[in-house]
Write a structure and sequence with these properties.
102 residues; alpha/beta; Glutaredoxin; 27% strand; single chain; 4 helices; 5-stranded mixed β-sheet
Length: 102
């Protein structure tokens, strides 16, 4: 299941998560963001319990976007134990997104 990450739930959902978290920094007006959304939804469903997929709308969560230094979207960030382990900018096929989680 995908979760909406906000500054209010960031610590609980991301920093204190017991499983890796794939954060998707996106916006409604972003074409490439919409292109990868179905793949992210599939990953969230297929890897439920092993990985969390968190969606961060950069227009609504400006502070989080600034904290992560977001300059281009979609930005995918893999976090584990409260630390950034991988980052990738731009649309990519599902296989490449899954590779970020390995």
């Amino acid at each position: 299941m995908e979760i909406t990450v906000t500054k209010e739930n960031f610590e609980t959902e991301v920093l204190k998560s017991e499983v890796p978290v794939l954060l998707d920094f996106w916006a409604t007006w972003c074409g490439p963001c919409r292109m990868i959304a179905p793949a992210l939804a599939q990953i969230a469903e297929e890897q439920a319990g092993r990985v969390k997929v968190g969606k961060i709308n950069v227009d609504e969560e400006y502070e989080l976007a600034m904290q992560f230094g977001v300059t281009s979207i979609p930005l995918l960030v893999v976090m584990q134990d409260g630390k950034i382990v991988k980052k990738s900018v731009g649309a990519m096929p599902k296989e490449k997104i899954e590779a970020l989680l390995k």
